[in-house]
Specification:
With 300 residues, the protein is α+β, with helices and mostly antiparallel strands. It has 11 helices and 12 strands. The strands form 3 sheets. Strands 7-8-4-6-5-12 form a 6-stranded mixed β-sheet.
Amino acid sequence: MEQIKEAKDILSPFGSLDVLYYYSIVAEKLKDFLKGKEIAVKIWLSNPKGIPFFLKRGSNSPPLYIEDFSVVDEKMLKLRAGHSLSEVKNQLAAKQELVWEYFVPRKLMDFFYACNKEGQGRRIERVFIDIDKGKNVKSEIAQKVAESLIEIIKNDKELNKILKYRMFIMWTGNSFHIYLILKKPVNLDFYNKYFAYHKDSPLGSFTGRWAEKIKKKTGINVQGGHEKTPEHITIDPSGTPSGKLARCPFSLHMKSASEADGIAVPLSENDLKRKNLVAELRKLTLKKVLENLKYYAKRL
């Protein structure tokens, strides 16, 4: 969808909060990266009585795919600005209705996808590694860990003997994700053997050995696994198996129902070497992301 000329604000194209306008624009650049992957959203609630958000995804709703964003048009966005779905349902195509149900008007939300598709036990097409930093760890430290991890992966002879892949790097809005996008899918047993972290055998997987090497090399508190602690950075591949979600490139990174504190964007290896990278990334606005969308899309 072409950007609407009348849009005065990216998140309020017709005077009412609506993230769908922005996400429908970036969706055009995500068609290859998210092909065949079910979309998910984290919808934040303004006045929660319990959990502050809820997930809508292909495991609890009819699946939505990246190509389905092509149904979003100006007429639909104008309807969303002043009406509820029930009021205008008869004016929408079935796919438009489904998109509406996922991307609720007047709500802020993070944009996710099923990394290796919904369901359990499916083949692994990409290994997803979260550089998960504790709340007391600066993002600049996570940058150093991501840079070090990439160097270790590239020089890991055992890995490169058994696996063909390309690397993908992303700023999440707060930390970093690293993917190994595989040339050929592998089964879940392969992931469990080589990548899953096991406490009783911390050096028994690439993940544990990589974490230990980074710790020795940099002196940073790095550990493998899924357990998050305030003072550590965790090398966490547990979002890889099918049925797990990952953040989409260009997603808002929500701090609360009323505040986004970052924007996810693809990066290059050279980007990670830049001294002021995190400061630059924290200054990103949606306007700047859209102005440089072709530049970022080249890294997908």
